[in-house]
Design brief:
Helix content: 25-40%
Bound molecules: flavin-adenine dinucleotide
Oligomer: single chain
Largest sheet: 5 strands, antiparallel
Shape: globular
Order of helices and strands: EHEHEEEHHHHHEEHEEEEEEEHHH
Amino acid sequence: MLPYNFDYYKPQSIKEAIELYQLLKLQEKKPMYYGGGTEILTLGRLNFIYTDAIIDLKGIPECNAFGFQHQELIIGSTLSLRAIEENKLFPLLSDTSKEVADYTSRNKITIGGNICGQIFYRESVLPFLLSNSTVIIAGPKGTRKEFINEVFHKELRLDEGEFLVQIVTEKEYLKAKHISVKKRQQWKTGYPLLTVASLKKEGFIRFAFSGVCPYPFRSIQMENKLNDKSLSFKDRILTSFEYLPTPVLNDIEGSNEYRLFVLENTLSYILSYIGGEEHE
Ligand SMILES: Cc1cc2nc3c(=O)[nH]c(=O)nc-3n(C[C@H](O)[C@H](O)[C@H](O)COP(=O)(O)OP(=O)(O)OC[C@H]3O[C@@H](n4cnc5c(N)ncnc54)[C@H](O)[C@@H]3O)c2cc1C
């Protein structure tokens, strides 16, 4: 339970949710969109989050969508990570999201909550960054469709009152050769020491990272170095480190030096697995 009272709303349409948010703001409330509620409850109990009006998005049909429309996979923001894990329409996404938290929490955690939450790992965003997905965002000014790589910088950039409705991925990315590797320091269900997701498209290998820095990222400069076939795997990896964003995390999960050591080994494994075509 939360240490404060709040009102609970479950709108049945995008329009109703947006209007409700605006009305609650006019009443000087602090409304918050709600997916699975795990972060709102966990951080709320510690007084890191405060809301007096919860707007549960799970009653909105578009937010529950999961399936193909023409050549695109549509994933509603309120789908649980467990549903995504079990229904393997996007295998790289299933592989990445099945490592988030523990089995019971994944019944509740939604894909929208994982991407939009404050807890900075946001591991489920990695496959979307690699597959040039688009996001459907709804807000007081209407609904917009944006490339995720243009609106996700450390976090999904949402204006006041906006929420994530869906993520759309072209079918051609879903069956690309891929791998997701999560390394933990603590327990089998802990936060990542680091996670690297990788996808190979037209001979070029893409990489996205969580747990290396205090936000998830994909770096084109790092990818260019990691794909440089004139270099050995080791040299590709070490030169790619020159383009790592800073700061590299140095926390209870592991020091920055240890993270870089594990990252080097992880990238070496991924390059071998996914076919980096090494030339000594
Ligand atoms: C025990 C535990 C372990 C965890 N382990 C991991 C881990 O290993 N890896 C990892 O990446 N993360 C991990 N997390 C973080 C977790 O994925 C996030 O906290 C996520 O926000 C929870 O999803 P939710 O649907 O319950 O979000 P909620 O609690 O419902 O919402 C969280 C935040 O996101 C906002 N939000 C939710 N849905 C939307 C939407 N559609 N549009 C806009 N804003 C929205 C809410 O307003 C709120 O600010 C863990 C969390 C917990 C509690």
